[in-house]
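Design a sequence for this backbone.
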């Protein structure tokens, strides 16, 4: 499971270092795809295989299903970190998340989100995190 918030930099080749705390859980390859709120989502291969299996059950005749598949599954890229834990984020995904230099990686239990630091700071500042946190904690009974 993934936990924590880490800030790091993307190099001129579009590579970032996956935080060491996340590397072991991700394995030798993983999937990076578009997420909501201008971020990227990272899944382990076993988790991604479950997602793809469920997604393949969606009817092709459903317009929203087609849009979802094109947006989420169609943008997915397999990443293989090098010996230093660096991996390349494809240009299309960098553009989606507006990744330039400073990057934030968030461990969210079964997935990792990758944000531009600028967008993460804006998102965090613009959202009433305390109220949302209190509501979800109440729902979970914690």
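Sequence:
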């Amino acid at each position: 499971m993934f936990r924590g918030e880490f800030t790091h930099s993307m190099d001129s080749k579009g590579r970032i270092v996956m935080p060491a705390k996340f590397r072991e859980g991700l394995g030798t390859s993983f999937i990076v795809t578009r997420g909501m709120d201008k971020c990227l989502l990272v899944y382990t291969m076993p988790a991604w295989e479950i997602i793809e299996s469920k997604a393949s059950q969606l009817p092709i005749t459903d317009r929203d299903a087609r849009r979802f598949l094109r947006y989420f599954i169609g943008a997915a890229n397999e990443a293989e970190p090098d010996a230093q834990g660096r991996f390349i984020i494809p240009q299309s995904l960098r553009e989606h998340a507006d990744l330039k230099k400073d990057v934030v990686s968030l461990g969210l239990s079964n997935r990792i989100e990758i944000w531009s630091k600028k967008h993460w700071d804006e998102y965090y500042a613009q959202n009433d995190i305390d109220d949302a946190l209190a509501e979800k904690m109440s729902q979970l009974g914690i």
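The chain has a mean pLDDT of 93.
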